[in-house]
Amino acid sequence: MSSLLYFLFDYLRKCFYIFIADLRENKISSSIENAHSNAILSAHFEMMNKYIICSTGNDYAIKYWDIRKTNECLGCIFNNSHWVWNCKYNKNYPNVLVTSSSSSTVRNIIFNKKEVAGEEEIGNTLDKNFNDYWFIDYCEFEDSVYAVDWLWN
Question: CA 123 to CA 18: how far, in whole Å?
């Protein structure tokens, strides 16, 4: 799936959206309404599962979505002390996510994902609750960290 993620704030409805555009058909394939309670700062597709995205925002939250069922969030992590500016999945380890925030922290989040029985399409890349995780913080920065990415070999 060749997709593009983009964000929009509807001033009339006071609503934050994530839109998923299908670049092959040049149309919006789905959208997530009220994805965050404040501005959306980033979103990223999981490398091994084209239906799962992670989003971050000014509400200090990291949220997980299945773009086929956009009416409910799969999971949410609220353990940040300030805005989460960026998120990126690791290409080689799909259960590892790195985030950066205004709290001068870079955080690696490692999910203990289990196979979801009866869902062949999703396979072993999704734990429905996203509750089983641990993280490693790197707090050696003097100022906000606005962007983060993985170094590929």
Answer: 25
Q: Give whole-number Cα distances, 51 to 3, 4, 36, 63, 91, in Å.
A: 11, 13, 19, 14, 15
Alpha carbons 121 and 118: distance in angstroms, whole number: 9
> How long, in residues, is the chain?
153
CA distance 21 to 141: 35
- Consecutive H or E run containing 145: none
pLDDT at 11 over 70: no
* DSSP bridge partners of 108: 98, 136
DSSP per position, 65-127: EETTSTTS-SEEE---SS-EEEEEE-SS-TTEEEEEETTS-EEEEEE-----TT-TTTGGG--
For 94-145, how does the pLDDT look when each residue is reduced to its tens digit (9 = 90+)? 788 899 999 898 988 887 765 433 344 443 344 444 567 788 888 888 899 9
Across the chain, mean pLDDT equals: 79
CA–CA distances in Å: residue 53 to residues 27, 58, 114:
18, 17, 18
Give pTM, 2 decimals.
0.78
